[in-house]
Every structure is written in structure tokens, then in C-alpha cells.
């Protein structure tokens, strides 16, 4: 995904956090907030640009290396918008840009994957959001004395069904975001996020579902919450589970040959959907690891809405199901058995496509059965997947 850059904004002062250092360099559960934010970006394969306060560039480079990230570190500006602009300049000529707040350090891979998928499908600006669950009221601006604090009169209740709380990473067509910054002028300093600048151009901003773990660490209470999630009492590690999935499809389908989310030369695989045995095996491995059944229980075996559906559709459904239970994929390995297609010829492409789908590293290998059985006679393709998932 070398056409994508992720700008991690870590230049905030952290005054409200009260740790005496810029927020991203405060420690939680034995590591800085910045390190926690970078750890889950290893799977993306994108250019990572980290924007930090002037004078903290060397520290940030060490932190990125400790997180396993080869990052480009640049100095930010006086405002958040100035810092994002510096990151945009450093990102160079890329197609897509994701802007992510380091303060949302617990953000799992799933929102990144959803944003990347939406951009790949043609969206120009994408934001992860969550429904607003609290009752929201306006204030009428009238204040009166109330002892130690000024009391303010409340106005009408704001209908919350149409409200959404914005999160990051926010994803953009890079040229569009550069244009938004160039044309915003003085207004960019007052913008609270990058999507606001894009909307000023009259461009539609679409949303994908965010994640409860992507909350912003701003106050001491936020830090306590994050630390409790990172190092729960009595346990210093995540809950881990493994699963195995197997799928087989015979040749004979009327559509193209689909495997690992890619189209290959040759006759297609038979099935109600597109017959992508690799994606289907991955779905069963993920669901099995979480104890959530299998692909048949997830989408049914003959539902008309999934006739001819691509394997990526089922992978997304499985990730949504896992996410609802607090699970996220760590990595997946798939072995493809068959005479054709030759997996090795496009292994890296397949791994990149699947990793983007899952928001986690996926390795792919191919082998044959030395002519034994139906697979060995070239009558079909089998895929075996193993998945490791975690829950914080």
C-alpha cells in the first residue's frame, strides 16, 4: 500500500493531561502514548509520517523504532492544522492520506481497514464515527452566580439520533486534502478536524463505523481509563485465541477465478458466491477462534443477496461480528492447495490485498498434493487458514 500515507499527529502540548511533557510522550502502562498509537500500524504497509513538537524528533524516532515502525518524523507547527500541513508536505506524492491523532492510542486495526476500503471504493473523504449516546442540550448563554462556580441555564434538548461523534483516522484522497488546506486560508486554524476543511469545498464526507477503543486521551481520567485497558488488574497481556478454517471449491463456476480477493486467469470456482476459498477459509478461522460459529451461520449458504458476492464481503462481515465482541485479528496464515493457479506468482499481491481487508498481517503460501485426490487431479482448490485474534 505504498500509495498511502498515514500522518500521526503527535504535536499536542498535553496541558490538560498534566504529565509535564507533550501528550504523546507521556507514559501509560510502560510505554509512551505515541508508542501505543504506532504499534497497531505495522500491518498497513503505508508510509508513516509522525508529526511531533519541535525538539522531540529524535525521541520520536526512537519510539517508532521500538514500536516496529519505520517512520518519517517531522516537526509540527503552532496549531493542529499547521502540524497536519507539515505532515502532508512530508508525505509527498501519494494517492491516499489518513490523518490519525496519536491521542487515540488504543484505536484497533478495524477502523483503519474500514477507512482504507472506503477510499479504495472511490470515496474522497471518510471519517469513522460513533452514535452519540448521551442526552445533549444546548445552553442559552445566560449565566448566574452559583457560589464557587458560575451556573449556566440549559436550553432545549438536541435530538441525538442525527448526531455522530467524530474519530480518527480520517481518510482522504490526498489531492483533495491538499486542495482543502490550500483554499482554507485563515479558516483552517479554527477547524476542529480535517473533514471540516474538505466540507468547506462542498465535497461530500462519508462515514464508517468507528470503535469504542478509539477514544481520545485528553484528561487524567482518560489516561486512567486507557491504562486500565492496556494493563487490566491481574493481567499484563491480551486474551489470545486461535482458529482454523478450511474451504474447498470445485472448478466449474461461470464467473472469473477469484482467490485471495484477486482475479486470476482460468475457469472460475463453483459456489453460491464467487467461490473464493481463501477468503472463506479465513472467515471460518476468525469466527472459530472467537467461538462465533462459521460462515454458514454468519451469512447463510443460499441467501440471494450473497449470490456471486466477493470474498471480501464475507471477511468484512466476520470482522464486524468479531469487533462487536471486542475481538480483533492479530495475524492470519493461509495455505492454498491446488494445481492451479500458481500462488507464488502473485503471493505478495495476494498478501497485500488480504492484509488490507483484515487490518492485520496475512501470509499466503501454495502447495500441491502430488497428484493425489480431486485436488491433485486439478478438479478444485482447497484453502486452510489459521488465525490469531486478541481481546484487550
Question: Can you walk me through this structure?
Answer:
With 392 residues, this protein is an alpha/beta fold. The protein folds into two domains: 4-132 and 163-230, Spore Coat Polysaccharide Biosynthesis Protein SpsA, Chain A; 239-391, 60s Ribosomal Protein L30, Chain: A. It has twelve helices and 17 strands. The chain has helices at 33-39, 57-66, 80-91, 109-120, 174-184, 194-199, 220-230, 277-290, 295-299, 311-324, 347-358, 373-376, and strands at 4-9, 27-28, 31-32, 47-52, 71-75, 96-101, 125-131, 136-146, 149-158, 164-166, 170-173, 206-209, 239-259, 262-269, 327-337, 362-367, 380-391. The strands form four sheets. Strands 1, 4, 5, 6, 7, 10, 11 and 12 form an eight-stranded mixed β-sheet that branches. Strands 14-13-17-15-16 form a five-stranded mixed β-sheet. Strands 2-3 form a two-stranded antiparallel sheet. The mean pLDDT is 89.
Question: Outline of this structure?
Answer:
This protein has helices at 33-39, 57-66, 80-91, 109-120, 174-184, 194-199, 220-230, 277-290, 295-299, 311-324, 347-358, 373-376; strands spanning 4-9, 27-28, 31-32, 47-52, 71-75, 96-101, 125-131, 136-146, 149-158, 164-166, 170-173, 206-209, 239-259, 262-269, 327-337, 362-367, 380-391. With 392 residues, it is of the alpha/beta class.
Features:
392 residues; 60s Ribosomal Protein L30, Chain: A; 2 domains; alpha/beta; five-stranded mixed β-sheet; 32% strand; eight-stranded mixed β-sheet; Spore Coat Polysaccharide Biosynthesis Protein SpsA, Chain A; 30% helix; 12 helices
Amino acid at each position: 500500500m505504498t500509495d498511502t500515507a498515514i500522518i500521526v499527529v503527535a504535536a499536542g502540548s498535553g496541558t490538560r493531561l498534566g504529565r509535564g511533557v507533550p501528550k504523546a510522550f507521556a507514559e501509560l502502562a510502560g510505554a509512551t502514548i505515541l508508542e501505543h498509537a504506532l504499534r497497531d500500524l505495522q500491518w498497513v504497509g503505508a508510509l508513516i509520517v509522525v508529526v511531533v513538537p519541535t525538539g522531540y524528533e529524535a525521541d520520536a524516532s526512537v519510539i517508532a523504532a521500538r514500536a516496529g515502525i519505520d517512520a518519517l518524523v517531522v516537526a509540527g507547527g503552532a496549531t493542529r492544522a499547521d502540524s497536519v500541513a507539515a505532515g502532508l508536505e512530508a508525505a509527498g506524492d501519494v494517492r491516499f492520506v489518513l490523518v490519525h491523532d496519536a491521542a487515540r492510542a488504543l484505536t484497533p486495526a478495524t477502523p483503519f481497514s474500514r477507512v482504507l476500503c472506503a477510499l479504495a471504493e472511490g470515496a474522497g473523504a471518510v471519517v469513522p464515527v460513533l452514535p452519540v449516546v448521551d442526552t445533549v442540550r444546548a445552553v442559552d448563554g445566560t449565566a448566574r452566580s452559583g457560589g464557587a462556580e458560575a451556573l449556566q441555564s440549559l436550553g432545549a434538548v438536541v435530538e441525538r439520533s442525527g448526531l455522530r461523534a467524530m474519530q480518527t483516522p480520517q481518510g482522504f484522497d490526498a489531492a483533495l486534502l491538499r486542495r482543502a488546506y490550500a483554499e482554507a486560508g485563515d479558516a483552517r486554524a479554527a477547524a476542529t478536524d480535517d473533514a471540516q476543511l474538505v466540507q468547506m469545498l462542498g465535497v461530500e464526507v462519508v462515514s464508517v463505523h468507528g470503535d469504542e477503543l478509539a477514544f481520545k486521551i485528553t484528561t487524567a481520567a482518560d489516561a486512567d481509563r486507557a491504562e486500565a485497558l492496556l494493563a487490566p488488574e491481574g493481567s499484563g497481556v491480551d486474551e489470545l485465541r486461535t482458529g482454523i478454517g478450511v474451504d474447498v471449491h470445485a472448478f466449474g463456476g461461470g464467473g472469473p477465478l477469484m482467490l485471495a480477493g484477486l482475479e486470476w486467469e482460468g475457469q472460475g470456482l463453483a459456489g453460491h458466491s464467487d467461490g473464493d476459498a481463501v477468503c472463506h477459509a479465513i472467515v471460518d478461522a476468525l469466527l472459530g477462534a472467537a467461538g462465533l460459529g462459521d460462515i454458514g451461520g454468519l451469512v447463510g449458504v443460499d441467501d440471494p443477496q450473497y449470490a456471486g458476492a466477493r470474498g471480501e464481503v464475507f471477511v468484512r462481515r466476520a470482522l464486524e461480528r468479531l469487533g462487536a465482541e471486542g475481538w480483533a485479528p492479530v495475524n492470519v496464515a493461509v495455505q492454498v492447495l491446488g494445481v492451479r493457479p500458481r500462488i507464488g506468482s502473485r503471493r505478495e499481491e495476494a498478501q497485500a490485498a488480504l492484509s488490507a481487508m483484515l487490518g492485520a498481517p496475512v501470509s499466503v503460501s501454495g502447495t500441491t498434493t502430488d497428484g493425489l485426490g480431486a485436488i491433485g487431479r486439478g478438479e478444485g482448490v482447497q484453502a486452510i487458514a489459521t488465525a490469531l485474534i486478541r481481546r484487550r
